[in-house]
Specification:
- There is one protein chain.
- With 564 residues, the protein is mainly beta.
- Among the domains are: 135 residues, Cupredoxins -  blue copper proteins (Immunoglobulin-like, Sandwich); 70 residues, Immunoglobulin-like.
- It is built from five helices and 42 strands.
- It is globular.
- The chain starts with a helix and ends with a strand.
- CU-O-CU linkage (C2O) binds next to strand 7 and strand 33.
């Protein structure tokens, strides 16, 4: 009761443009060392009322990480939560052991310290926990942060990029609060909208072109963004980078997990108060956020109604337009990034995935949802993808509700929606795609750079309730095939003992020209070698999985050696 009347008040006030809260702008972390401390806290969402929350380096959300392409960054993620967790760099192309998926657990009171080179294009990414069955809890209670990657291609363009001045991070979320103002994690009654954890926010923006970095960090809800009076805006980037050219529009559907960078022209609007809204009345049925979350009114989602956000337009953010800065961006570039989309003819394989509820019938919107009739199993690797494979993934949604599908490791190009080429703003790099009921989406991606047979990458629905419920699968990228092909007649050196403590021996009849050792990250590892009477001893290996590469003429043999 309380929540509904409160929401009504907020909507009323925001349409009148007063009594609001200044938009919180997350602080920035940058440089070669990034330290995140995951902690419990309390946040004042409502005046004088404290809500229990989780956050990174604070009570709620986390700092924005600003990273440069090509930089080697060391992270340290300390877990002071009351649960185990993980930390995933959503959208970044990193080795699986650095990806922070459900297998890379950070126990309570311990610290995880991956380091990796930023390979990604300039775009807006994000980070969030990813422990199986716990992702929704940890994200809904507050842990999520933005990652801004910069590169030279983006730097060469005349774009707003002054963080918090003309370039604004907007983490848009909806949450459900109970009577005691505590967040309800497992809920289809998310009726409170917030941006950067600020309810009913306003932002003072200069009277010029501003850049809005949109992240839909909601557990379930899709937004249909638009400006007051249908003012056109320009989408310049999708999940994984700049589009080839700005895309002018008045509406943009943004599903959970998706990002978009927008340019909005506030030139000559000083003193005005435009708004960013979600035109949810225009969201087609079958998408969480529409009047009917399923394709038919008879399909119902527990707790979805009543909720004034479903199928009704609502304000996300109020702007107060101030005087322009001294050096404003005054136009939209005509061209943005140089993209070279993968072609269908490049594909090595097409994989078909279908989404369906476990139970059909009038209650099918409540899941549990499965991919290819299977629920996620930590012990089952669903696909082994050869390193450097180019693959088409064909996703068919046979359930009654839209699912935002996300894949780790790669950025992809959407080839088609129901056989038709996607709109121009979906022709850039993506890592999340909303697949509507009865729709088939095909995308293409190349799985390069990282292979590891032990640690899988995830793919899943980014509605966190669905993900935690098992609508997820995993794949490894494997280097096996190329190794096997190069084996042929080579008389394999027999390694013993294996596993070992860092020292092993081998004997081999053939001439060995060179030996190299790599760790699980693919980095070369030093060692010492001793040859006594044809028995070679290698010592000084590091703990973990090592790949020992023997070269003999044109032949190459890779052997795995485990040091424990
Ligand atoms: Cu944003 Cu697998 O996650
Ligand atoms: Cu991800
Ligand atoms: Cu889903």
């Amino acid at each position: 009761m309380k929540r509904i009347s409160l929401l009504g008040t907020l909507l009323f006030l925001s349409f009148l443009v007063f009594a609001q809260n200044p938009l919180l702008i997350p602080s920035v972390l940058t440089g070669a060392n990034i330290e995140l401390t995951l902690q419990t806290g309390m946040h004042e969402f409502f005046d004088g009322q404290m809500t229990n929350t989780l956050g990174a380096n604070g009570d709620i959300l986390g700092p924005t990480l600003i990273l440069n392409q090509g930089d080697l960054v060391s992270f340290s993620v300390q877990n002071l939560l009351e649960d185990s967790t993980t930390m995933h760099w959503h959208g970044l192309h990193v080795a699986p052991e650095n990806d922070g998926g459900p297998h890379t657990v950070i126990a309570q009171n311990s610290t995880w310290s991956p380091s990796f080179t930023i390979l990604d294009k300039a775009a807006t990414y994000w980070y969030h926990p990813h422990l199986h069955h716990m992702t929704n809890k940890h994200v809904s209670l507050g842990i999520a942060g933005m990652i801004i990657v910069k590169d030279s291609e983006e730097a060469a363009l005349d774009l707003p990029r002054d963080y918090g001045v003309d370039d604004f991070p907007l983490v848009i979320q909806t949450k459900d609060f109970d009577e005691g103002n505590q967040i309800v994690v497992q809920s289809n009654n998310d009726d409170v909208v917030m941006v950067n954890a600020t309810i009913d926010p306003y932002l003072e923006a200069p009277a010029q072109f501003v850049r809005l970095r949109i992240l839909n960090g909601s557990s379930q809800r899709t937004f249909n963004l638009g400006m007051t009076d249908d003012q056109p805006f320009y989408q310049i980037a999708s999940d994984g980078g700049l589009l080839s050219a700005p895309f002018e529009t008045t509406r943009l559907l943004v599903a959970p997990g998706e990002r978009a960078e927008l340019l909005v022209d506030f030139t000559d609007m000083e003193g005005q108060s435009p708004q960013l809204l979600s035109f949810a009345s225009e969201i087609p049925d079958g998408i969480y956020g529409a009047t009917n979350p399923g394709m038919m009114a008879m399909l119902t989602l527990d707790g979805y109604n009543p909720n004034e956000l479903n199928g009704n337009d609502f304000v996300i953010l109020d702007f107060n337009i101030m005087e322009p800065t001294s050096d404003p961006v005054t136009s939209v570039p005509t061209a943005l990034a140089n993209l070279s989309p993968l072609l269908e003819s490049d594909a090595d394989i097409t994989r078909t995935l279908s989404f369906a509820p476990e139970v059909m019938g009038p209650n099918q919107l409540n899941g549990m949802f499965q991919i290819n009739n299977a629920s996620f199993d930590m012990e089952v690797v669903n696909y082994s993808i050869p390193l450097n494979n180019t693959e088409i993934w064909q996703l068919t949604n046979n359930s009654g509700i839209a699912h935002p599908f996300h894949i780790h490791d790669v950025q992809f190009y959407i080839l088609s929606r129901n056989g038709v080429s996607p709109a121009e703003n979906e022709q850039g790099l993506k890592d999340v795609v909303l697949v509507k009921p009865q729709e088939t989406v095909r995308f293409i991606a190349k799985f390069e750079d990282f292979s590891n047979d032990e640690v899988p990458y995830m793919y899943h629905c980014h509605m966190l309730v669905h993900e935690d419920g098992g609508m997820m699968g995993q794949f490894v990228v494997s280097n096996e095939t190329s190794i096997d092909e190069s084996l042929r007649a080579f008389d394999n050196p027999v390694i013993y003992p294996n596993p070992n403590q860092g020292t092993f021996h081998f004997q081999n009849s053939e001439q060995i020209d060179s030996i190299e050792v790599y760790n699980a990250l693919g980095q070369e590892v030093g060692f010492t070698m001793n040859n006594r009477g044809g028995i070679v001893t290698i010592s000084g290996l590091v703990r973990g999985l090592n790949m020992v590469k023997f070269q003999s003429g044109d032949l190459m043999y890779m052997n795995r050696v485990l040091v424990d």
